[in-house]
């Protein structure tokens, strides 16, 4: 990366970090952050979407620091990685915070990964992820609850002092809006663990091929010094192949980040030509790996049948993405529930049962169909007609809001399409999404 470009990058990064760790003017975030910035803490509850949400978090942090004494921190950049074109960067830093709260001394260690893009000649933060380093019995070096508990303790103190102000904001309209937004983001929350794993894979490839390429350059220079041009050309061929692989896997990671940003932001309502096969395949895999990241014992057969005749369809991609993700999440829940029930009962049935979720796309004249099927417990006939009603759910209390299928039905209807369900009790369920081509 060019020296001046890197200098501007690190300056923006320092201002971004100081926004959280020091009492700097919150207004400076307008120049540092992308409007669609997204961030995750150590649990799915600790997630941020949009610049206004970040500002709220900074204000809360500054308010909390008023109750702390002997507040100090240190930071160390442990990794910097730049895109080939120099317009994207990932910076990973470790922070150590110490303070005294109510005579109790506390220390917190954080690892923050920040993704930055160059937009209109200015660096912007578009994504970050925070973790807490703690050794656990399971071998996981990043504990999922420690930071959350610490934040909740400080938040409780602030909430007690501002309860009267917050009470004035709790009216019916706000509650309804919160319900709808909560359901929109619930599907993304299910994926947060899986997203980290999905991004790590292409990043590992990028790191490995970069190291090998560096060694190849040394070997090529040695051959050139010897005057062996042919061998140097052969090494250059290998080097070019490695760079192509680095570019491929870098684009893969970039696609995952941009896909999640698109899924999380509020829909503009604008229809865009969208590759339905690509959109469906992406969410199919992310939904599965997201569940696997939460429950390592879960396994299922994934079956795909994408019609190559299905090209682009003009839809609102964020909305259709929410629909198919909701269908996949429900399908995986259904097969996992059946497998669990069988494991608690007849072991012979457990061995013969193979949890399977399939997706198929098909071009039918003037419309496109997306079919999601599972071999779970199915839906009884007496309730199948209620499945799209708001707040109706077959899941146990705490497992679902009953809004997912209702919202999906409305989204498809708004696109001029149709969402229908077919199924038989104990045999499985099939959802069919029909979308008009135009």
Distance between the termini: 44 Å
Quick check: average pLDDT? 79
Number of strands: 14
Number of helices: 12
Helical content (DSSP H or I, runs of 4+)? 40-55%
Describe this structure in words.
With about 450 residues, this protein is an alpha+beta fold. The protein is built from twelve helices and 14 strands. Strands 1, 2, 3, 4, 5, 6 and 7 form a seven-stranded mixed sheet that branches. Helix 6 packs across helix 8 and helix 9 packs antiparallel against helix 12 (about 405-415). The longest helix is centred in the middle third of the chain and has 55 residues, at about 170-225. It is globular and about 70 Å long. About 25% of the residues are buried. Mean pLDDT is about 80; it is low at about 135-145.
């Amino acid at each position: 990366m060019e020296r001046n470009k890197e200098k501007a990058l690190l300056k923006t990064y320092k201002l971004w970090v100081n926004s959280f760790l020091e009492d700097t003017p919150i207004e400076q975030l307008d120049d540092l952050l992308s409007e669609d910035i997204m961030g995750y803490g150590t649990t799915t509850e600790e997630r941020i979407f949009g610049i206004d949400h970040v500002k709220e978090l900074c204000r809360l942090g500054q308010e909390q620091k008023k109750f702390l004494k002997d507040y100090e921190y240190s930071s160390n950049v442990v990794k910097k990685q730049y895109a080939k074109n120099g317009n994207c960067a990932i910076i990973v830093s470790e922070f150590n915070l110490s303070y005294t709260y109510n005579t109790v001394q506390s220390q917190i260690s954080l690892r923050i990964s920040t993704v930055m893009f160059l937009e209109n000649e200015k660096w912007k933060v578009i994504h970050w992820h925070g973790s807490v380093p703690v050794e656990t019995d399971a071998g996981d070096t990043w504990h999922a609850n420690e930071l959350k508990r610490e934040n909740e303790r400080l938040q409780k103190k602030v909430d007690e002092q501002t309860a009267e102000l917050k009470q004035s904001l709790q009216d019916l309209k706000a509650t309804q809006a919160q319900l709808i937004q909560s359901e929109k983001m619930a599907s993304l929350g299910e994926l947060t663990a899986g997203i980290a794993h999905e991004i790590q894979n292409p990043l590992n490839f990028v790191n490995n091929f970069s190291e090998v390429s560096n060694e190849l350059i040394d070997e090529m220079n040695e051959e050139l010094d010897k005057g062996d041009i042919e061998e140097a050309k052969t090494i250059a061929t290998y080097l070019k192949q490695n760079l192509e692989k680095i570019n491929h896997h870098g684009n893969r990671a970039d696609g995952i980040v941009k896909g999640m940003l698109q899924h999380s932001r509020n829909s503009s309502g604008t229809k865009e030509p969208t590759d339905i096969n690509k959109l469906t395949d992406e969410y199919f895999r992310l939904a599965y790996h997201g569940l696997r990241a939460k429950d390592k014992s879960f396994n299922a057969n994934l079956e795909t049948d994408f019609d190559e005749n299905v090209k682009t369809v003009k839809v609102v991609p964020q909305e259709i993405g929410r629909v198919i993700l909701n269908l996949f999440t429900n399908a995986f829940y259904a097969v996992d529930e059946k497998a669990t029930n069988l494991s608690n009962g007849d072991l012979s049935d457990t061995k013969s049962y193979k949890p399977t979720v399939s997706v198929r796309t098909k071009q039918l004249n003037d419309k496109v169909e997306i079919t999601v099927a599972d071999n779970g417990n199915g839906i009884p006939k007496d309730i199948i007609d209620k499945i799209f009603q708001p707040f109706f759910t077959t899941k146990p209390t705490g497992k679902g809001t009953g809004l997912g299928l209702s919202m999906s039905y409305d989204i498809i209807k708004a696109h001029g399409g149709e969402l229908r369900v077919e199924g038989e009790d104990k045999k499985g369920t099939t959802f069919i999404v029909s979308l008009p081509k135009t």
